[in-house]
Structures are given as structure tokens and as C-alpha cells.
User: Fold these one by one.
Assistant:
Number 1:
Amino acid sequence: MDIAYIPSPSHGVVHLGPIPLRGYAFCIIIGVFVAVWLGNKRWIARGGRPGTVADIAVWAVPFGLVGGRLYHVITDYELYFSDGRDWVDAFKVWQGGLGIWGAIALGAVGAWIGCRRRGIPLPAWADALAPGIVFAQAIGRWGNWFNQELYGKATDVPWALHITSSTDGRVPGYYHPTFLYESLWCVGVGFLVIWADRRFRLGHGRAFALYVAAYCVGRGWIEYMRVDDAHHILGLRLNDWTAMVVFLLAVTYFVVSARLRPGREEVVEPDGDTPDGDAVALDKKADSEADSKADDEADETTDKKSDDKKLDGKKPDAKTDTESDEPAQSKESVEPAESEEPAESQEPEESVEAARGEAESAKKV
């Protein structure tokens, strides 16, 4: 009985004349462009300058490609250095084989170099780029579809992946499309980081730590479903152990960073724009205009007070002249009064003597 399934491409490469166009490489390139584009928008919104993300990506991307390839070759060395294998194949990146753990680790080294040259903090740049990186992973996983690789256990679900190739030990059949599971999981992680960053204003590398932790959770159960060859430790695939260790490191960083450096960076790049976009920039412009207006009013008030003081400085002189004249006038008015008082005091004495004389003449009579 025929079942519904996801078909695999018959060829993972299309030749344009002598130039091979490989689906795996296209997925990686498109993912890088998406990461840089989205990272640039988020960087500008945080107050950074346009083009900074791309300038640092020039360092991060090559380092990341080398790191991803090194991790794959080291952990799957038997594919390149065992009997019957050609070690030159280790350099054929277009055939697939990039370990995300090595890509992020060595890519971070390249990003650190780029950030140091620009004088900006690496955690702030990583926070801006985190959703773009995980969206790039979602796109890059479709490169595994072109190469018919990284599928899961056999299944009859309607979305089963139909493998048709029999090279490199493949067995044609219907399998869980683990590449699709991881791609969808990465999309969900990307939107989770964007939401959490807006809701809680994550900073100082915490948005990047959230991306790493959330990705590791999905990678753990998806890795468990895969059936391709891998090294096992205590019954678990190597990438499962890696996911657990990296998850614990990411959660630890998130918690410690939140306690030591809460909030988000106020300035992410020297001479950058204001953070949080145009709205904050307009608010700052309005505040500066209000402050300028207040300063002008204060200057006018100060000038007015200065003029009033000058006028008040002239008034005391006139008042002093007036006060200096008043004592002279009062002195003149007092002096005559004092000279007239003795005359007024002599009149009662004369009347008293006249009255006494009349009384004595009356007694004689």
C-alpha cells in the first residue's frame, strides 16, 4: 500500500555549465544572509550602527565554517582516515558535514576578534544575532535533505522521508525526517528568543544563552531518533552528551549573568544611535528641545533679574539724598520751637504775681 511521504531530490547538485550549484551550499549561504540581515536590524534597534554586524560576520563566518568542519571530522574521523578512505574528502565541505557545536565555538572566536577591532562588547553582538543564527540553522538543515542524510528511524507516518540513495551504507526506505524536525524546532526557538528579548529586555549575552539552551533541548530528543553512525558513551550518542553539557553551561551563564549584570546594555557601540529604535530617538530629541527651551527661559529670567537689580541700585541714591535733606529740615523746625518755649513759660509766672498783688491790696482795704 502506498503511503504519503516527503520525496527526496534525486540530485543534490545542478550543473550550470562547468559550475556546480549544490543545494547544501545554497542552504548555508542563504542562512548566512538571513542571519546577517536580521542581526543588523536588531543591532540597529539596540543602538548600534548599520553595517557593524556584517563587518564582524566577515570574521565570524569563516571561523564558524572551519570550526564546524573540524568538529565533524574529529568526531567522525573514521569517515576520512580509516582504511579505504581518502583523507582529502575531509576538505569537501559541500558534501555535507558541519558540526554546529564547533561552528558556534570557533565562530565565537572570530566574532570576538571582530568585536575587539570595533570596540564593542561581544555579548551584546551575540544577543542581536541569536535569532538570526537559529533561523540560519533552520534553513541550513534543508541542505541535509538535498544530500539525503541525517534521517531518523524507519516509520510509516504520512510525513515520512523517502530515501532513495544506497550510497555510503544508506538503505532505501521511509524514515523520520529528523532534518525537518530540527528545522521546525529552530524556527520555534528563534521566535522564542525574539519574544523573550522584547518581553524581558535580555542583555549581556542572555538572549544568546537562551537560544543555546533551547536549541540543546530540541537537539537532545532529535539526536536520539537518528540512525546514522555515531560514537556512543554509556548508551547515548556523543551529540546527546554534548547537548546536555552545553545546556547546563548556557543555563548557568543565564542565571549568573542576570544576578551580576541585570538589564540590558545602555550603549552597545561607540558613536551609535539611541537604543530601542526611532521612538526612543524621537523622545530624546523632544527632551533635548524641552531642555533647550527651559535653558532659554532661565536665561531670560536671569537677564530680567539683573536689570531689576541695576534699577534698584539707582533708587537708594535718590532715597539717600532725600533722607539727608530731612534731618536738616527737621532740625530747623525744632530749633524755633525750643527758642519759643521760654516765652510761653514766662507768661504764667507774670499772671501769678499779678494775682498775688491784688489779693494783698484787698486785705489792706
Note: The first strand starts at residue 5 and ends at 6.
Number 2:
Amino acid sequence: MRDTRESRLLLVLLVAVAFALITVDIRGGQESPVDGARQAAAAVFGPVENGVAAAVDPIGNAIGAVRDSGERHTRIAALEKENAELKAELGSDDRNRNRLRELDSMLKTAGAGQYGIKGAQVIAIGAAQGFSWTVTIDVGARDGIQRDMTVLNGSGLVGRITTVGPSTSTVLLANDPDFTVGTRMEKTDELGFATGQGDRPLLVQLLNGKAKVKTGDRLVTFGSRADKPFVPGVPVGEVVRVDPAGGGLTRNVYVRPYVGFTKLDIVGVVVQAPRSDPRDAVLPQKPKPAPTVTVTVTAKPPAEGEQPQGEKADQPLAGRAEKPAGDQAAQDQAAQDQAAQDQAAQDQQQPQNENPNDQGDATP
């Protein structure tokens, strides 16, 4: 088409119509008048997304396998191709094992909460209708999927269904800024509303501004009327930060979600709600502290003539000998006796010294 005045006017008109449709869609919300066209587009492009998803892995492996092929490096290219095939085979086994682990974990979560789920696989990432955190899964209306159904995996809450096509559905993730879910805190039952913040922790506004919250507290979904869009008891996340209480009507806490939204693969759509609220039964078990080893020593009664266990005999101090108390008393008594004998000897010597003087003065 040549660059003419008519072509420019047509381009401006198409842009204006596009903006008008976007505005009507946003303001219409869940009752958007273009919802029928969106579902028709999902019906048309859903099978294409499935085909592209199935073809991506073989194409990627083929490109890596022939990466450095050339006439002068035929042998090197052949070795690289063989190496790439081996890596692809090993990678496929690892991926299958990882999927089995995810499926097993999801089934355990569904069993703990008594949720009836329909398994699905993420086949596309990104927004189908706007710039938001969404994924496309490979189940749709033909599989019994309806709008506003809860989506979870083995870790916890993933999001909710927003658009349903015949064979595919769009899921709004829980970390999207337009996503809000009612929450209930474990044990204390404090209620609040969690809102997505992209790649940052969820913002939860507790209805009780004086609620006692600490880091590590855990939250689950409170549930919706008729269990849509949320069933109760699905794990949401764990508190990582608490804003100081400012005396307001609400209190803000920040929650790290259990689900990794950047590595989703196997998910489950809750098609049947539990008969009763599972409360905290679906939350993962907290790690148990390491057991403390306690050693108890029992003293054995000593035999006759044997020194009791644990007691040590008196030992003389270094450089000075110690004697028993009886020997010391005998020594003191002997010293006293010796002193008395010395005193008696002195008394006997004193009259003998005085006699010669008396004899010299006497007259015969």
C-alpha cells in the first residue's frame, strides 16, 4: 500500500477504534461487551498455542544440536550433535521426574483439603488481554472449566480462572496487582485481604488494626460465597514483615507466597469445593527442631568396703603432707606432756642452785 492520505486516515481510524475497544473492555470488567469476542479468539488461537507449545522443545533441541555444523568441522559437529541428543534425553527424564513430583504434591494438597480438581499444564505465559500476570492452561469448557474457579498447585494458591475457551483457559495469578483474595490467619483466625504486588511479597490488610502478628505466621484463603472465585483453606503464604501498628482501623503485613509464579508447570483447577472448611489442614507441616540428647547417669550403690563411685580420696597438697586428725591430736598431747616435764625439771634445779649459798653462811 502506498503512503497516501487515505492510508494515513485509515491507520488513525484503526488506532482510535482499538483504544475505544480497550477502554470499553476495561470499564466493563467481568461483564465486558467484548467478552464474547475474547472467547471466540481463545477458541481460535487456543489450539495454535497447544501446537506451538508441543513444537518448541524439539525445535530448541534441534537448533542446539546443529549449532556449529560446517564442512570443515564435520567430525566436531557430529560429536556435538550426539552430545546434544544425550543431554536432551537426560533433560527430558529430569523434566518428567520433576513433573511427577509436582503432580504428587498437588494430589496430596487436594486430598488434604478434599478438593475435586482437574489437572492442567501451563502452555503459555503472559497476558492474552492486557499487561497483567496471567498464564494459559490446556483445559477449557470442554473439560468442565468455568469462570472464577480456584487454581492451585502442590504449594498453594496460584490464581483464578478469568477467561474460558473451548480447550484453553486464562488464569490471573495471585501476584497480579488486580488480584485480591480474602485471607484467614492460622490459629488466630484474623481476617484480611491480600493483594498482589508483582514480584514483591503480597500486601495483606488485616481488618483488626490491633491484631498480634509476627514473622512466620501463615495464611490461608477465607473462601467466597458459593466457593467462587475462591474455596476455603488453600495455603497463601507466610508473613515476612509487619508494619508497626499506627492506631488505624487496619494493619498491613507482607506475605511471601508459597507458589513460585515464575516456574509454573502442573496446576489444578478446583471443579468441586470441599463439603466443609478444611481450616489449617492443608498448610505444610512446620519443620521440627532437632531433638536434644539428654544423658541420665544413675549412681551404683558401693559394695561393702568399697569407696562410693564419684567420690575421690583425700589427697595431700603438693609440697605439704597432711596427716589424719587422730595423729594430730596425739602430737598435741605429746607436746603438752613434754612441756610439763620440762617445767618440772626446771623447778627441781632451782633449790639445788640455792643450797650452796646457804651452806657457806652457816657456822660449824
Note: The mean pLDDT is 79.
Number 3:
Amino acid sequence: MKSADAAVGRAHQDLAQLEGLLDRYGLSASDLVDKEGLAGGFSGFSPLLKAMDGMGTIIRGLFVD
């Protein structure tokens, strides 16, 4: 049960960090995640970003020059 509690706690922490990043910059990018020094790097947040996109909380996409 402790591992499940730890996983939920980690998910809440990741969500709070990602929401802070979105509040500060209005977007999420691998360079910003690196700049902020978030644990797990951008790839660690990809599942959370995908879930948030699926729920309609955010819109994922790419910027093309």
C-alpha cells in the first residue's frame, strides 16, 4: 500500500510542478523543463501531458519555424 501512496504522491507533485511551469511560461518545452531542473526531465512529464491533452485541460502541439 505504501508504494501506491508514494506513486499517488509523486503524481500530485509532478502535476503541481507542471502546472507551475504552465503558469509561469504558458507552455511546456523540453528546454524549459531542463531550465527548471524538474526531476525526470521532459520525458518524465510526457505521460502527464498526454493525459491532460486527452482530458482537454491542455492542447499539445509543435511550433514549426
Note: DSSP finds three helices and no strands in the chain.
Number 4:
Amino acid sequence: MLFGELKALRAEYDRLRGGAPRARVENLHATAATYEELAELYDQLVPLEPALVEEHRDAAEQHRREGAQARDHAELIGMKAGVPQN
């Protein structure tokens, strides 16, 4: 379900390229929040699947990095366009 949300958010962002900065910033914040939700889900899997601990931790960390990149990108777009940040 969350992967579907990410796909839809990416498609929406692609559609918004060159458009209103505020909409792109909002999209990137939603994308970051979805990545953070995914990271939390992988964290919850760690104790449930001991054989896959490293894979789940790696996936959680990767999703956190992607979420942080989305937030950084939103901040950059916002600063360039004068869009107030949340």
C-alpha cells in the first residue's frame, strides 16, 4: 500500500515539475512522510523476522535517507521560491 502511495506521489511530482513551487513542496513533504512510515514498518519487522534483521535495518535506513532527501529538496525549492516551510 505505501509503495503504491510513493509511486503516485512520484507521478504527481513529475506532473508538477515547472509548476507551482508550493505544490511541489507539499508533495515532497508527503513523500518524506511516506518514506518515514515505511522505515517504521521495517523497524517493526526486525524482532518478528530474526533471520532478516540486517535486511530490514538496511531497508529502514534507506527509507530514512530517501525521506531526508525529499525534505531537503522541499526546503531548497521553498527557499528559492519563498515558500514558507512547515
Note: The chain has three helices and no strands.
